[in-house]
Amino acid sequence: MQNKLTFFNSNRAYYYLIFTYIALSFLLIFSYKSIGGYEEKVENFLLNRAIGIVDDTSTNILDQIIFKNPNFIRANLEDKVLRAENEKRLSVLSNQDIKSLYVLYLNKGRYFFLFDIDKEEHTDVSEPFIPENEKFFTQVVKEKKKRVFVQRDIDGLSFTLLKPIVQKNKTVALLVIDYSENRLSSLLRVSVDFLSYSALILLFLLFVFFIYVLYTRYNKYKIYRNPKTNTYNRVYMTDNYDKIDFKNYYVALADIDFFKRINNLYGQENGDKVIISVIKIMASFLEKSDIFIQYSGEEFLMLFSKENRTEEYVRELLEKIRTAVECTKFTIDKEKFSLTISIGVLFHTEVEKSLQEVIHKADTALYECKHNGRNCISFFDISQTQRLYREKLKEMIETDKLVCYYQPIRDLETKELHHYEALLRIEDGDNIIFPDKILPDLEDSYLYTYLTKRVIEYNINKLREDEKIQISVNLSADDLINDSILAMFAQNSDLSDRLYIEILENKSIDYNKVELSLQKLKLFGYKICIDDFGSGYSNLNHLLNLSIDYLKIDGSIIKEIHHDKKAYSLVKTFALFCQQNNIEVIAEFIDSQDIVDILKSFGVKYGQGWYFSKAVPYDELGKEHK
Length: 626
Prior knowledge:
- The protein is of the alpha/beta class.
- The protein folds into 4 domains: 2-33 and 189-224; 35-181, PAS domain (Beta-Lactamase); 232-387, 2-Layer Sandwich (Alpha-Beta Plaits); 392-620, EAL domain (TIM Barrel, Alpha-Beta Barrel).
- 45% of the residues lie in helices and 22% in strands.
- The protein has 22 helices and 24 strands.
- The strands form 4 sheets. The protein has an 8-stranded mixed β-barrel, surrounded by 4 helices. A 6-stranded antiparallel beta sheet has the order 3-2-1-6-5-4, sandwiched between helices.
- β19, α18 and β20 form a beta-alpha-beta unit.
- It is elongated and about 140 Å long.
């Protein structure tokens, strides 16, 4: 099983490590062999920078010497005064770094002195000169380009600048500037050391970078796994979606039945411990070639390798997993209880186009299992009636297909608008999906809470866009004790005077927890309403145990009051009770003026229904609230 794998033998880290060391070694050897060439380039770069001012100044002086003189060499050889004047001009270049400065003219391939600014060891004109580094002189003459070279063989010299004097596209003379050993020499030596150390530092940084890459991969590895079970989580599937070759696996989606009750009874921390125990039980049946992913809090995706396995074998294996969970006694605070799981399976993954489609169909089978009473295994059948499965629904919820329609709640006396009730819709093309087709299948599912959050977000955005509109949203009792949902209301408490909360009917309510949440919401300024009172699971305990501001009487009773005495009496009693306890009443499903008149006689203040308006998208609302 994969939880037995370690980071290194489940990744290609060793291969990367070996490859990197080899690459770094070759790079180090190459750098060492090439250090001479780098050194020369750095030296020339530094030297050219160092003598930049002298170079530019000498160019200007030579231009003055040669200006309008097509045969300046002959003129300076014959005229001592002119030669002395030009030597004086060149002497401007002298500084403490320059040891000697002279100009040589060429005659039949030989070099002779034309100018020499050295006063102590002055060389007479036309004396021959034999260069120690003749190849550099020849190169400058031939290429007609200046050259700086290091004097490695002459004591007392650091480097020499050779500058060609060109007339009629021919080098006729050379300006020679010899630099003595000084700070520039030290700078050159430092530059060589700098180059060597830079190469080492670069190699070290490359190594550090590789270690960083490994460290990052290891952190991602940890992000991908539940540290207590070493099994994958959904982040792994998201990041490796295209890398999972789903066609080689049988795919099963499992869900803990009624797990939401565990969280409600014992808290999320204890609920997480139970999930870990369930994961360990299920994962223990898987092999190394299988993949186990914690798909959501209480949902698990299992990919069974098809290699050497038949469908019948996997059927038996899944039954063993289901039975193992069912037979386990879980313990929280010394209280023992049992759990069951439902499993949806898709065998023929090879015909599917994507992993998402595979999960969709496994999820469809899981839904079938839940509708058959849970604690069983269902297998996807291509011939079965298609259902709105959760994964597809989740995609629609995350996109702009989730919308709310708004039905006005009006003052029965004045017909003035009080607020709108936000009613969930899913717009799937031209098809409008209503809550009664969605919510029953989401009960006790993580997606129910997710859907609630999206509806709250949707309406908060509308309230911020439109400062005049007032909206009520529907929450279940379980939503009211959900910390993340309460946090959303707390963070948007500036909207509390325009955002009403309606409590939906529920099978069972922990009144202590719900009342505590309601008190928190009321401190923020929110108004609370009980929805659909008088039908389903609603009962008088809601009125007696919860602090509410509004009571909404269910439409199944309201629409009968003008011809059913029991409905008439019931509504009248509710209205009287609410008047005595400062609770405003809202009547649903009003479809005629007759019903409005009866409700007004009871003291019912607000109503909604097709008599006033059906629910419409926000863009179709009237201007009265603006």
